[in-house]
Amino acid sequence: MAFSPLRSDARVLRQVRLFADRYAVTTLGYGDAPEGVVEHLRLPDDVVSWHKDRRLLLARRYETAYRRSPVVVAAARLLEGRAGSFEVVLADDIDTVPLALDLAAPGGVHADLHEYHPRQNEENRRWRLFVAPYYRWLVRTYGTRADSVTTVGEGIAREYRTRFGIRAGVVVNAPGFVRLAPSPVAAEGPLRLVHSGNAQRHRLDVVLAAMDLVTEPVTLDLYLVSNDPAYLEELTTRYAGSDRVRIHPPVAPHELPATLNAHDVGVYVLPPVSFNHLWALPNKVFDFVQGRLALVVGPSPEMAALVRRHGLGVVTDDFSPEALARALDGLTREDVRAYKEASAAAAHELSADRQVVGWARAVDALAARVNG
Length: 372
Fold this sequence. Notes:
With about 375 residues, the protein is an alpha/beta fold. Helices cover about 40% and strands about 15% of the residues.
């Protein structure tokens, strides 16, 4: 169960592919059915997944706010009369956990909490005041009742344990292993930097500002999803005549490693404007590894630890454009070659093929309650 378009939700698709080979998988979510499922319960396209009644939130009538939210009403209709008909339920994100528990699966419920929900949008004052208490209630009331839990990183898992007593395993957002060799680093000419992901100001401003400060020859290719069309249009206009920064359409996930492989260095500096930003360990970091790139990242604890542990690249001194520019100027071609080889060496370990074991163990343990 996930309140997302399942065919474009990479984390959910990994779960479906993992379990469809050995279980009869039914999915509930937006959009068309993923491949391999026996049944798909499709949420109406016009139902907004995040909508809540503000008056109920202000009155702290959280149970009513949840049960009356349009997506929960729609999902409950799809699930009517199905209690007890599924042996195990895998609930993605905290919003689906109450519905999962309602199904009274004899094996139980596994909750995959993609982020730390009580602080998801804490940089927004209104969200912090009115929505955060609702999510704290949701985790405390329902998240604690899940039979097993996973999340995306150690820092987030630690916070769930400290604040709510939830012991969560970790399954990082890694794509499947791709067999590639590192591309050669040219003896002359600019180093080829690359970034892929959402066109969001707070995710790109640092790297773009750093490009104005770097003194060594580098180029930056951006493969951007248009989740903020106005900002993407702004970037397209700003860099229309640039030979250093190039804007490209997004690349399908299965094509991304080969596209990244044509570059030298994957770059990502995410200022810690919220708890989830501070502890982020995003899929793009693992995409860079599958593309066999050197990495330059900011000092976000999870990303920095991964890069240092595997010798994948450089961690900047802080989150500023100046620190990123210094890190890029300090790269030698020998460094980049060595970091790309380190990515190749770590690609198996840092792939979904290894990481999904955390889901397999959890769900298989629940299924064993039913089937032995």
